[in-house]
Model the fold of this input.
Amino acid sequence: MLNTAKWFKHVTPALIVILTLMLLSPLSSAVMLHESYSCEVKSVQKLGDDGGLVPDEYYKLLYSDSTFVIDRHTGRMLGEPKNYSGIDQPEVIDRGSKEQSLKVITTYGPFVSIDYLLVQIYVDALDKPFMYVSGATIYTGLCKGL
Done:
């Protein structure tokens, strides 16, 4: 006959550890999908005359170390730089997933220009790389889930 008290004495600590790990594993995963991300600009470059990327000194002074928050539902970048105007609003092309980047496009008119934001939310780290292209200027940096 099984001695239940003895069995529980040996199984209970292991069971508690297993259940704790199961409950905490989603919290420790870096590939969690958040509704918004706080992003910091680390680099500002532009397309050079030779076809390569060169530092954009003007926008670097304005936006280096600046922060913005991206909303996965609307695609809006709140802060600096931003990807919308009073008339023109961003369009979320892909909200992103554990396999795909968040992708947002804003089309401005009447003289057409396009902004493109990509956040690699699938990266298995707390910091998610981003790239924001506005005209010939390219902003890069890191985002954290909020």
